[in-house]
Amino acid sequence: MTKRLPCPPAPGPLEDYAAQFDPLFTSLAQRRGFRAYLQGLLLPRDRNKTLTALAGAEPVVGAQHKAVQGLQWFVSEAPWDADQVNQRRVQLLLGDPATRPHDQGVLVIDDTGDRKAGTATAHVARQYLGSVGKTDNGIVAVTSLWADERVSWPVHITPYTPASRLPKGKRDPAFRTKPQQAAELVQAARTAGIAFRAVVADCFYGDNEGFIEALGGAGVAYVLAVKPRKGAWAPADQDHTPQEAARQLAWTSPEEPGDWTPVTRRFRDGHTETWWAADARLPAAGWGPDRRIRLVVVTTDPVTLPKLSTWYLVTNLHRPGRRQTRPPFPPADLAEVVRLYGLRNWVEHGDKQVKGELGWADFQVRSDRAIRRHWTLVCLAFSFCWHAGQTRAAAPDAGPAPPATPPAAAARGAQQRLDPG
Fold it and tell me: How far apart (Å, rounded) are the C-alpha atoms in residues 119 and 289?
C-alpha cells in the first residue's frame, strides 16, 4: 500500500479539526485543497468569498492563478463525497459534549434563498427569495438545524429545484416541493441519531397540510407557526381563522389575565420579557386544547395582538392534565411550547448572518455537485467556529450554565486565530 504523503498543516486550531476528515480525501492535493478552502472561508471578510478571494488572489485577473485553479478543481472536479464529509461533521458534533444534541433541543426547518444571475447555474430560477423578501432570480436551499438555548448547528442541506428547471415541470418524477424536502430532512436527522423534542418551522411549513401529516405519520412532535388569517370553513357565526379564535380568549388585565398565562422569555443577551400564551379553540380546523392538534397563541399584548410579536402555533404536544391513553409524547405546558418555538430565532438572528460571513452565497460554481460541496464546506467552517469557541460542555442535565459563545462571536474569534496578519 502506498504511503500517504503528509499534508502541510492548516494554521492554529484548524489543523486538529481538518485532520479528522483526512481519511475521506484520497490524495495530497485534495487534503491541501480542503484546508485552503476552509481557511479562506474562515478568514476575515473584506470582499465576497469567491474562489479568488479564498485563494488571496486579485479579483477577475487572478482567476487563472495556480491557487485559484486548485480550489476550482477541488470543489468542482476532485473525487470526494460531500455526503460523507457532512456525515463525519455531524458525527463529530454528536461526539462533543459541548454540541451533542439532546431531547430538549429542537430541529429547525427553514429555507434560505440568495440572488444568482442567469440560468446556467443549477437550481437557479425566478422564485421567492427570503433574503430579499420577494421573487427574484436566485437559488434556494431547504435546511435543517439543531438548536437549544446555548448552541446551534446545521444538520442537512438540500437545494430546491423549481419546477421550471425540470423537463415535465411539477409532473416530473424528480420534482419535490419544499415541504416534501423538509420531511425528508427530518427523517435524515432521525436516521443520523439526532435527538430533539420537536420540529419547529415557520408558517410556510405550518400551513402545509402534507408536511403536518408527514410528521404526524412518522411519530414526530412539532411546533409550527400558521398564518393568523389561515381560514377554515365554518358557519358565519363561528370562528374561521386563528386570529379570530384568539379574539375570543378572555382578558381583563395582567392582574386578571383570564385565559392567558404569563410566560417569561429569556434572550441570548441575558434580558427577559413577559409574553402571554393561551390555548385557543378553532373547531372548524379541528384544533383545540383537548384535540389531536392544539392551537397556541403567544403574544406581547393580548389586547392588540401586534403583528410582529404574536405567534399562532399548532402542535401535537398535548397539554398537561389531558386524559389520554399512552400519549405519544411527554406533555408540554404553554411555557414549554413557547420555549421550543422561540429556539427558531437561532435561524433568523444568528445562523444566517454567520453563514453570510462565511461566504454561503458567494460561490461562483455552476454544477449541482460543486454547489452542494461549497455549502457542505461552509457548514464545516460554521461547525469549526463552535469547536474553537466553545470551552465548556453543554450537557442538558448539568444545571444552569453560562451562555454559550454566540456563533458570530465564535466566528470572529476563529478568524482572529487563523488570520496570519
Answer: 49
CA–CA dist 282, 268 (Å, integer): 34
What per-residue confidence (pLDDT) applies to 6?
83
Tell how strand 294-299 and strand 272-280 pair up.
Answer: antiparallel
- Report d(CA 317, CA 78) in Å as an integer: 46
Report the alpha-carbon distance of residue 408 to residue 353 in Å, rounded.
8
Residue-wise pLDDT tens digits, 46-96: 888 988 888 888 888 788 889 999 999 999 999 999 999 999 999 999 999
Locate all alpha helices (DSSP H) within 2-81, ordered by sequence. 14-19, 28-42, 51-54, 66-76
Give dist(CA 264, CA 275) in Å, integer.
6
Q: Which three cell numbers stand for residue 11?
A: 494554521
Distance CA 378, CA 37 (A): 9
Burial of residue 39 (CB within 10 Å: 0-12, 13-18, 19+) is buried
Kindly report the pTM of this predicted structure: 0.89
Tell me how far apart the alpha carbons of residues 148 and 420 are, in angstroms, rounded to a whole number: 34
* HSE, side-chain direction, 13 A CA sphere, residue 94: 16
Q: How far is CA 173 from CA 214, 372, 373, in A?
A: 19, 21, 24
- CA pair distance 392, 140, nearest whole angstrom: 35
